[in-house]
Write a structure and sequence with these properties.
Blueprint: E1 4-10, H1 18-30, E2 37-39, H2 53-69, E3 75-84, E4 87-96, E5 99-105, H3 115-118, E6 130-132, E7 135-139, H4 148-153, E8 159-164, H5 171-185, E9 188-193, E10 204-206, E11 212-214, E12 220-226, H6 228-236
Parallel strand pairs: 1-2, 2-3, 7-8, 8-9
Antiparallel strand pairs: 1-12, 3-4, 4-5, 6-7, 9-10, 10-11
Amino acid sequence: MTSKKYLCALQFKTEENFEKNLSTLKKLFSKTPKECIAVAPEVCLTGFAYDRFEEAADFGKRALEELLEISENKILVFTMIEKINEKFYNVAKVLYRGKVVYEQPKVKLFKFGGETDYFSSGSMDDIEIFEIDGLKIGLLICFELRFLEIWQKLKGADIILVPAMWGKLRKRHFEQFTETLALMNQCFLVASDSANDDMAKSSAIIDPFGVPYRDDRKALLCKECDFGDIKKMRRYMDIGL
């Protein structure tokens, strides 16, 4: 396992123009360091686009091919609207070395935002820790932060990645959940939230001691992280992870 790696959180607005969103994502990702892990906001390519689902799913397929081409020496994480067997899902994609190395559908849908009316949910069995270059990685999507059974499934991860579209009215909840999840798992956490006016922002890179690097003014946050800090924290406070 690499002792140090840059972790990056992208924090940008999602527009109605799908092409513009893709261009913004590619531009920000191009500014991240080599060998980093970068997380983009939930459904950042299209937004939830409930009245344009077919178009959004088709666009996602093409955008995915373009993003795979630029993932050769970096890891990119985001979610997209995907049509599978005539049903629509919000699916997290992990791209690395030109391939989709992991994917995970959203399991807990936010009914107050209308998600349950349009999306099908994944299964809890779809959530698991996966490994890249010796790093144990867990992933959850936005509203899933509120569910302890998902936290349990991420126990032992070195990094937890959180693409989100979290509302401004519950900004402090987002900050509290992400910081506490990093502390509970004694791991790094990268949270990426939309910068739309009604969203919380609060994107952050949080270390195993629960200390966040956060700046609502920036579209790109990057921090070099020492994974030796995970061992330090787990030795100092041994809770059996």
